Amino acid sequence: MKRTPLIAGNWKMFKTCSEAVETAKRLAELAQKITHIDIMIAPPFTSIALVSESLRNINSRVDVGAQNLFYKKEGAYTGEISANMLKSAGVRYVIIGHSERRQYFGETDEDICRKVRASVESNIFPIMCIGETETEKKEEKTLYVLDKQIENGLKGFRSDELATLVIAYEPVWAIGTGNTATPEQAEEVHKYIRSKIGKMFDFSLAENMRILYGGSVKPDNISELMSHQNVDGALVGGASLDADNFIKIVNFNK
Ligand code: PEP
Q1: Which residue's alpha carbon is nearest to atom 4 within ligand 1?
Q2: What percent of the chain has pLDDT over 70?
Q3: What is the pTM of this model?
Q4: What is the CATH number of the domain that holds 241?
Q5: Domain that holds residue 223
């Protein structure tokens, strides 16, 4: 089974509404002829609906994502956003458990598991982020950390509920630092993740699941990363903020 690559941009806490719409439109224009790659951008909450609307008007194939959600359906949870609200704003993917959420906002694997469930129930494709810190890597705990994040993050799921799940392997030491994992390191870890999913659920789910690499992906390192069998795309932070730069990553095979 051939997996369609996904190149996803995480805009983090950057861009006002007008800047977000302008960048999204420019990307849509540049991506017009691309058919073999899925493309997603995740603007801040404030501009999601506007970006969705502007892309819908020009019939773009760039999908809109969110950077987070809260797992409750609705209620007195000041400042939070539900899966249903995201759906109504045109969201197709949601990034869950990004290391910045884990690090600065105390998200636990249990929160992440609830968020994955909420997104699946609202038909939003979850992109679950996992990855080890620099210290954990130095202590050779990478696989142990990934095991725990996967086991706890996907606890209680049946494999048919995870058909749209995307996993993003993002070593924390590589995010925003310019230190990318080597393509060989990424491939080895992705292969491990795929086999873990196969053992926990089933092999056809694992074979069809997209596993993205994230951490200082740039136009000049994407092709080599993507040349590896188990790297199905990228989650891109800094290099996704400028449409003309991001499209070079999307066009990795040109
Ligand atoms: C990210 O935010 O998920 C990320 C990988 O950031 P950067 O590409 O800037 O390292």
Answers
A1: 237
A2: 100
A3: 0.97
A4: 3.20.20.70
A5: 6-250
